Amino acid sequence: MAGKTLMKSAKSALSRLQCAKSTVTQMRSFTSRLNEQQQAIQELARNFANEQLKPNASKLDLEGRFPFDHIKNLTHLGLMGAAVDEEYGGRGLDYLSLAVAVEELSRGCASTGMIMCLHNFLYANLVNEKGTPEQKEIFLRDFTKGAIGCFALSEPDAGSDVASIKTTATPDGDYWILNGKKSWLSSAIEGSAVAVFATFDPSLRHKGLACFLVPMDAEGVFRGKKEPLMGVRAVTACDMTLEEVRIPRSYMVGKAGEGFKIAMEQLDQARIGVAAHAVGIAQAALDTAMSYAKEREAFGKNLTRLPSVKDRLTDMCIMIEMARLLTYRAATDVCTKHSSMAKYVAGKNAAAVADHCVQILGGRGLSTNYDAERHYRDARGTQIYGGVTDIQKRLVGHFLLKEHEAL
């Protein structure tokens, strides 16, 4: 009798354990394995990068020339609207597919990868997910066919402190009138429209913000000169001034007061993209270092056989895989904590990997005749645009404590 009771108890415990395992499996459903569609996108982007981007990346960087032909070809591949609904000319892909494409393109040319990344994550996805049918017809359909969209959040005195935005939006009948100055608009010189964040009541701080879609050719929109950049030099960045810009009320995204929420949600997406961008740059740096180390000889042997070089290459590999896994996680389970963690680690690791690359090449690592110094410059920016690493660390800490009810 005791034996039967023990058996029933054991079976019951086993059943509970199996249920618990099932629950844990469902909760931790993340996998780093790409599905067939994601693998196909990865291969498509990798082949394009190898054939068209990598051979021209150095020249574009040295000349600081916008890659019009590359963007045109990416449009033909459907990657300039990768996550946009097919109804509006997009591919309807998930964020992980888009992130994988950004990584591969950035591995070939960091500038081209960044342009594609920001157009998708900050502009196209915003209009696709939050725009009205009318807004999508005007501000989305053409933006999967070659037109480039921009994102105007930062200002001369408002970067990380978004609530301090001074660009104003004043209601005037069926219109809004925008006045102010925006900074660091990527692709604005080539862009056709921009998502502008402005305040309709400064006293409300972040609760007084709204988001507007503005045609770049609207009267009163003035774009500044191209800003010389340390890295991703083929990307154009400039200021934009808005002087009595009159736009229809229907061009507001969401409602008045939702601007801050919209901006933060898009930045959560953008950080996934910038993290993937950083991983691509880091992978390119490892490729460069490995190719050089396999051919260069010192002390009668290849550099790969020297313990110090082997250690550096190993560290580079580990840092890249760490960043890639965090990026994949962020792309499959989008939230501020995950995207900030991915960007924080990917940006810092990309800079460290690129530094190792320069060190392995030695004197050649400082020469513009080799790719190492370009990777080094490109990697540094990934700790700044899309949200500086300092803020990302604070965000991760905030949500960590919030999860544990420790705020």
UniProtKB/TrEMBL annotation:
Task: Give the UniProt record's GO annotations in the biological process aspect.
Answer: butyrate catabolic process; fatty acid beta-oxidation using acyl-CoA dehydrogenase
Report the superkingdom from the record.
Eukaryota
Q: Which UniProt key words apply to this protein?
A: Coiled coil, FAD, Flavoprotein, Oxidoreductase
Q: What are the Acyl-CoA dehydrogenase/oxidase N-terminal domain coordinates in residue numbering?
A: 35-146
GO CC terms on record? Answer: mitochondrion
Q: Does the keyword ATP-binding apply?
A: no
Involved pathway(s): Lipid metabolism; mitochondrial fatty acid beta-oxidation
Q: Which cofactor does it need?
A: FAD
Q: Where is the Acyl-CoA oxidase/dehydrogenase middle domain?
A: 150-245
Keyword Oxidoreductase carried by entry: yes
Catalyzed chemical reaction(s) = butanoyl-CoA + oxidized [electron-transfer flavoprotein] + H(+) = (2E)-butenoyl-CoA + reduced [electron-transfer flavoprotein]; pentanoyl-CoA + oxidized [electron-transfer flavoprotein] + H(+) = (2E)-pentenoyl-CoA + reduced [electron-transfer flavoprotein]; hexanoyl-CoA + oxidized [electron-transfer flavoprotein] + H(+) = (2E)-hexenoyl-CoA + reduced [electron-transfer flavoprotein]
According to its UniProt record, the EC number is 1.3.8.1
Q: Which residues form a coiled coil?
A: 27-54
UniProt-recorded Gene Ontology molecular function terms: flavin adenine dinucleotide binding; short-chain fatty acyl-CoA dehydrogenase activity
Q: What's its top-level EC category?
A: oxidoreductase
Q: Check the record and name the Pfam families matching this protein.
A: Acyl-CoA_dh_1 (PF00441), Acyl-CoA_dh_M (PF02770), Acyl-CoA_dh_N (PF02771)
Task: Tell me the InterPro entries matching this sequence.
Answer: Acyl-CoA_DH_CS, Acyl-CoA_Oxase/DH_mid-dom, AcylCo_DH/oxidase_C, AcylCoA_DH/ox_N
The protein's role, per its UniProt record:
Short-chain specific acyl-CoA dehydrogenase is one of the acyl-CoA dehydrogenases that catalyze the first step of mitochondrial fatty acid beta-oxidation, an aerobic process breaking down fatty acids into acetyl-CoA and allowing the production of energy from fats.
Concerning its family, UniProt says: Belongs to the acyl-CoA dehydrogenase family.
Write the protein's name.
Short-chain specific acyl-CoA dehydrogenase, mitochondrial
Per the UniProt record, the lineage of the source organism begins with:
Eukaryota, Metazoa, Ecdysozoa, Arthropoda, Hexapoda
